[in-house]
From TrEMBL:
It holds the Pfam family WD40. GO terms for biological process: positive regulation of phosphatidylinositol 3-kinase/protein kinase B signal transduction; regulation of actin cytoskeleton organization; regulation of cellular component size; TORC2 signaling. PANTHER family: G BETA-LIKE PROTEIN GBL, TARGET OF RAPAMYCIN COMPLEX SUBUNIT LST8. This is Protein LST8 homolog. Gene3D superfamilies: YVTN repeat-like/Quinoprotein amine dehydrogenase (2.130.10.10). The keyword Lyase does not apply. WD repeats lie at residues 101-142, 142-175, 239-271, 283-324. The keyword tRNA processing does not apply. GO terms for cellular component: cytoplasm; TORC1 complex; TORC2 complex. It comes from Malassezia globosa (strain ATCC MYA-4612 / CBS 7966) (Dandruff-associated fungus).
């Protein structure tokens, strides 16, 4: 990921944003960073609540922000390229959202974009998954999870979702069939915290509150009775990744690594070769819980966000912190990174 470590100070171009890096959390600010310099380019005030999750649209133009009861969309370049858009306390400016998705009650805990940006999915403490039409800001579908949702991801085939909840369930939702096709309960009454699906659709990974990771092989097959393609899941391994809460698990874009972050202040990187999931390295430096991680497009770097108010850019080949993003006044609990090429 050349752009992240470049010394260039050229402003991001609105039509070809090279790197969009955003963090947020409990200080009611959303901070956009110049990834290569570590400087905060602009800050948006989010007065409604804390920010729980962030997701950047595939074309890098829109930022989805999950707070309490709503998801709001912001223009990633709303305040231009000036670095002076802060008040005296550094709280940032009030930027009107482009649209607001209302309907959840309680915190919205997860969001994910469709590959073309036509819709996005959100999950919440109210036990629902909602699929939103980004053009109308209306919920096209609502699924009852029957427990507070902690995470949701979209399968690379764009036709299925994977989600997990506070009751310990991992569910697969078939959008074609408009319902839940699989329900997995790895450990009874142990909350499942996070889910991730490999970019090639080869496996599903889920992590829970006891620091354990579960892996299923995913295969597409044709049912005999309906002659329809359907994903089949085969458990392949489980392992103890941390001694306490795992807050997020994320497979790298090249599917070679799994990152897990935890209440133990570390990020661990696991090799996924042959579904063995061996420990590659431990990233140490944060002082408090690490809440969220995001890989670079080339899988060479990782950004993490922590309760110590700091986000860090890690070079995975060396395990070193390459940049530190300082500025949040309270816990930074979510990070989003998009440095994919749009060419």
């Amino acid at each position: 990921m050349k752009n992240l470590t470049s010394s260039s100070t050229a402003p991001l171009d609105h039509d070809a944003l090279s790197v969009v890096l955003v963090t947020a959390g409990y200080d009611h600010t959303i901070r956009f960073w110049e990834a290569w310099s570590g400087l905060c380019s602009h800050t948006i005030q989010y007065s409604d609540s804390q920010v729980n999750r962030l997701a950047i649209s595939p074309n890098k133009r829109l930022l989805a922000v999950a707070g309490h009861g709503v998801v709001r969309l912001y223009d990633c370049n709303a305040s231009g390229t000036s670095i002076s858009h802060h008040d005296a306390a550094g709280r940032g400016i009030n930027v009107a959202p482009l649209s607001t998705f209302e309907g959840h009650t309680g915190n919205v805990t997860s969001i994910a974009w469709h590959c073309d940006g036509k819709w996005l999915v959100s999950g919440g403490e109210d036990g629902t998954l909602k699929i939103w039409d980004t053009r109308t800001s209306r919920a096209q579908r609502v699924y009852d999870h029957k427990a507070p949702v902690n995470d949701v991801v979209i399968h690379p085939n764009q036709g299925e979702l994977a989600s997990c909840d506070q009751n310990g369930s991992v569910k697969i939702w078939d959008l074609g069939e408009n319902g839940c096709s699989h329900e997995l309960v790895p450990e009874e009454e142990v909350p499942m915290r996070s889910v991730s699906i490999a970019s090639d659709g080869s496996c599903l990974v889920a992590a829970n509150n006891k620091g354990r990771v579960f892996v299923w092989k995913m295969q597409s097959g044709i049912t005999d009775d309906e002659q329809m393609e359907r994903t089949e899941l085969q458990p392949v391994t489980k392992f103890q990744a941390h001694d306490t809460y795992i807050t997020r698990c994320a497979l790298s874009p090249d599917a070679r690594f799994l990152a897990t972050c935890s209440a133990d202040t570390t990020v661990k990187l696991w090799s996924t070769s042959q579904f063995q999931f061996s420990l590659n390295r431990v990233l140490q430096g944060h002082q408090r819980w690490v809440w969220d991680v995001a890989f670079s497009a080339d899988s060479a770097y990782l950004v993490s966000a922590s309760s110590d108010h700091v986000a860090r850019l890690w070079e995975l080949s060396s395990g070193k912190t390459m940049r530190q993003y300082n500025g949040h006044h309270r816990a930074a609990v979510c990070v989003a990174l998009n440095d994919t090429s749009l060419e």
